[in-house]
Amino acid sequence: MLDFLNRAVTVDTYTLVVVAMLSGWAGVLTLHVLSRTVLALVFVPGFTLGALVTNYVFELTGFYPTPDRETNVVIACTAGIVMALLALLLFMRIAAIMAFFRLERHQFKRDMADRDLPYRRELRRI
């Protein structure tokens, strides 16, 4: 973990510019798709972290798709942003499901029960 933080802090200028540009554009696209400003602002740090982590993993494992270093940085950052987007959307879906179940537990129950007749209602006995 300390090695990742050390490499993330001492990243070169080119990688920093690529991460900033890709994360910014991903945030703008997220803003236009979701129409929620706060949600887009929350996603941008996740995109940045995903890009930096994937770039670090590419360097750590020695995985270089092309012989050009600059192209490898762009590929790693793009793959990291896509994976971060999927992880953030999955987290949002799980949070929405949990909120639905929590809200359902606190909603009022109906006092009336439907019986055989369509217009007749009786009080439910508990």
UniProtKB/TrEMBL annotation:
The keyword Transmembrane helix appears for this protein: yes
Protein species of origin: Hyphomicrobium album
Name of the molecule in the record: Uncharacterized protein
Transmembrane spans: 13-31, 38-58, 73-101
Keywords noted in UniProt: Membrane, Transmembrane, Transmembrane helix
